[in-house]
Amino acid sequence: MVMPSILLNFLFPPPPSLFVATMSVIAVLTLTNVGYNEFKGKHMQYSKFTNQGGAKKENETKLSSRTGMLLFYTPAFLVGLFSFLVFPDQDLRFVLLALALTVHFFKRVLEVLYLHKYSGSTGLESVITIMLSYTFSTATTIYAQYLSRNFPNPSIDLKYVGVGLFLIGMIGNFYHHCILANLRKQGEKEYKIPQGGLFDLVICPHYLFEIFGYVGMSCISQTLYAFVFTSGTFFYLMGRSYATRKWYVSKFGDQFPKNVKAFIPYVF
Question: What is the CA angle 125-130-135, rounded to 5?
Fold first, then answer.
């Protein structure tokens, strides 16, 4: 068949693993559904959307935003770190992928500890959902790569392209996180319209660069699962950015620049 032969130029064959196949379906369906809910106004309960657009739960446990975000990222970071012990002596592609995942989540942990400013809380249900998503996706990405070790490499090698895209995503995401962190002085809790960098074109450039990072890791991996998870993440962040732009417009009205899109400059 033509399509599989074309895809095999870019991807490893799917490994004979029910676990990886199941996680692929779960990832794309769950993330796409959560992104669709963001479009509809049913938000994951963290950041500025805590207590907004979700079903109200009596006596739901809340964590500080800082604690919640640490729980988002720390288990996935540890999975990436320990993968070097669990799967020693792997090839360069595996090492680059595991390193990229570990660095990605380590950066997130450092930003939570030393960069971000907080003004709210996070629902425990959202903390558990996001933590499990990051943890299982990281473990599955690494495991799928391990299972592909005996397959012939795709004829088109994208791993170095992936490293470049990953670095662009990391740097761009960090730069725009710094802009957000510097919007408010110590002790301030009021939201402001971010300016500078790509914030003059989209309200969520940090999400855009996060997708660059995930596309980069998918190109390093070249497994079907990695691209499936990246696709689901793209749809989720698109929905979240749409909701974020809508929130800024509702809060600031005519002060919000009409030419600033949600996620993709000049397009969306």
Answer: 125
* Residue pair 73/112 in contact by the 8 Å Cβ criterion: yes
What is the pLDDT confidence band of residue 113, given thresholds at 50, 70 and 90? very high
CA end-to-end distance (rounded Å), the chain:
35
Structure tokens at 199: 């914030």
Model confidence at 1: pLDDT above 50: no
pLDDT digits (tens, 9 = 90+) for 117-159: 887 788 888 899 999 999 999 999 999 999 999 999 999 999 9
In terms of Cα–Cα distance, which of 137, 81, 142, 71 is closest to 108?
71
Pairs from 146-149 (Cβ < 8 Å, separation ≥ 24)? 146/87, 146/90, 146/94, 147/15, 147/16, 147/17, 147/20, 148/12, 148/13, 148/15, 148/223, 149/90, 149/91, 149/94
Nearest Cα to 241, choosing from 260, 228, 214?
Answer: 260
CA distance 167 to 134: 20
185 vs 90: which has the higher pLDDT: 90
The pairing of strands 121-123 and 62-64 is: antiparallel
In sequence order, the β-bridge partners of residue 62 are: 123
